[in-house]
Amino acid sequence: MSVTHDLPKPRPLPRLLVVGLVSAALLWGAFSLYSMGQPLFGAILLGLATCFAVVFGSERFYGSRFIFPGIAAVLIFIAFPVIYTIWIGFTNFSSFNLLTYERTIEVLTSRGTVDQATEQPFAVASDGEAYRIWLPDSGLLSDPVSLTAEETAALSPAAAPATLLERREAIKLREGLGLLTLETPDGQMIRNTGLRSFASVVPEYVRTDTDHLTRKDGTVLTANHEKGFFETEAGEQVPPGWRVNIGFDNFKRIFASEGIRGPTLSIFVWTFAFAGLSVLACFSVGLLLAVILQWEHLRFKSVYRVLLILPYAVPSFISILVFKGLFNQNFGEINLIIEALFGIRPNWFTDATLARTMVVIVNTWLGYPYMMLLAMGFLQAVPEDHKKAAALEGASALRVFFTITLPQIIPPFLPLLIAAFAFNFNNLVLIFLLTRGLPDIPGTVIPAGQTDILASFTYRLAFDNAGQQFGLAGAITLIIFLVVAAISYANFVAMRRAAQRRSGRPV
């Protein structure tokens, strides 16, 4: 007779309690973001809270709890930034178009010009927990004010208060003074215009209706919702502007403007050349050193191996900054040696060809140890019998390497070479620390340099420029994304067909 023991069922109450607390915290965060004027991020957090509650609170979907964190991380930190960047590419988002429409109106209508004829000094007097503003030139004293929020107080003739604050104490109240408006007996409104004075402020712009502002000189400004600016009848744009969708205008600028199309194409070609040359140089140098270290008659192998791996152990940014000093055109050791030997002093940072050569040299120094380590492992996997058989047939060492060794290590190397190409395609750190993309490409309307790759070019366009053009940078990023996706797909197809050929299956 067999005895069946029922397994205890898991108690869902503690789990549901934890799920409820976490979901409530996420919902509160979503509401807070929405209240702060960030509805998009609030919606993302709301979606995360909903999915968390469904996956961890429902028995039906509880099995998905192991993959939920990974999927959520991919959607939030990869998919969302990509989609958001692509969306920016279809807008006029820039340093001149950061605000919303209503906020733009608030900024413009808050501008004013001080009427110096009404400017007069002031002092602050304490009145219990409140304060009074004393204008000695006109002999006016304000009603009690709190100086903690926006308020308007009337001024009336009075004697000078006996409890005037010292200047340094009054300066501590400057934030509250900036919120205060005083009304004189004749109805004039004056505001704080500095640490020492109150005066009448004439607004530069007055809102007349929903889409129109009037400048103090009488000029009427009309809101252009296609460009995101207020404009005069002559077409003059008044910054700041607001964000609007402009469709494919950024892409039209890239392909229609020679000042943008020319440098973009040049940088596009150089990016491929830089990534390809870097991979080829690193692979060649690393493989050569690995072959040398495999030589059985070489003494002190361990010493050489440690010395050759050192560039990989040193943080890359330190090596880059050291090389930046070594290649210094005036005081660098490399130019001092070249001048002593050949009597020339190369312009590494101002000549486009030399600057690009320098970038590849430095990148080779940074990348060859990785290739060398991989090659040392792959070379040990090549059967020695094949090499000995070829040697007995009279093949030279060079021929043995190119006909036996190299064909056997290339297949396992290929995915790593593709990965290295993709890394160098976006190697922003090297360009940014070594040359910052310089020397500049002449005749451009955007910041673009001879050593810029697409990643550094987009970065400079978006963040390292007085007229930061986030929309244009987003459009270029979308183009980069499409090109890299096409290359990745082509590499995938090529590798799959190569694997099919090696296995004898039809392509």
TrEMBL record:
Any GO BP annotation: maltodextrin transmembrane transport
ABC transmembrane type-1 domain sequence ranges: 268-491
Q: Which InterPro entries does the entry link to?
A: MalF_N (IPR035277), MalF_P2 (IPR029345), MalF_P2_sf (IPR047103), MetI-like (IPR000515), MetI-like_sf (IPR035906)
GO terms for MF: ABC-type maltose transporter activity
**Which ranges does the record mark as transmembrane?**
12-34, 40-57, 66-90, 267-291, 303-323, 358-379, 400-423, 470-492
Presence of keyword Transport: yes
Q: What membrane topology is annotated for this entry?
A: Multi-pass membrane protein
Could you list this entry's UniProt keywords, alphabetically sorted. Answer: Cell inner membrane, Cell membrane, Membrane, Plasmid, Sugar transport, Transmembrane, Transmembrane helix, Transport
GO CC aspect terms: maltose transport complex
Which superkingdom, per the lineage? Bacteria
- Per its database record, what is this protein's job? Part of the ABC transporter complex MalEFGK involved in maltose/maltodextrin import. Probably responsible for the translocation of the substrate across the membrane.
Name of protein: Maltose/maltodextrin transport system permease protein
